[in-house]
Amino acid sequence: MINLDFKKTGGLIPAIVQDYQTGEVLMLAYMNEPAFHATLSTGNATYYSRSRQELWIKGGTSGNFQHVKEIRIDCDHDTVLLKVKQIGGAACHTGYRSCFHKIVKDASLQILDKPVFNPEEVYRK
User: Fold this and answer.
1) To the nearest whole number, what is the mean pLDDT of the chain?
2) Among residues 49, 57, 61, 104, which is most buried (max CB within 10 A)?
3) How far, in Å, CA of 83 to CA of 120, rounded?
4) Global pTM?
5) What is the pLDDT of residue 8?
6) What is the C-alpha separation between 47 and 34, in angstroms, rounded?
């Protein structure tokens, strides 16, 4: 049994997501206990959407699923690191491979990459 400390952080723990082959940081999300157990049982990264207040299977709408290859737990049992195979090329809901596609240079933000997909076409809000 894996006992993570969801109580310390108000029921949600951070989940850092990396590409399992390159180590590239793709995103940061949050998990509640049901999301963690869903991830363990399915092998697909499942998070808790703070904005929608519900479980969110990464890729459920976009097709950009994350197949979990390895899960690491930090020393305090209140953060997880998911090493994933990113399906579809983009982890970011804005269409970029990584949510960390911006860099601070000379006190301004610069975008490092080009989007993999157009979010307006994928999510049709």
Assistant:
1) 95
2) 57
3) 28
4) 0.92
5) 94
6) 9
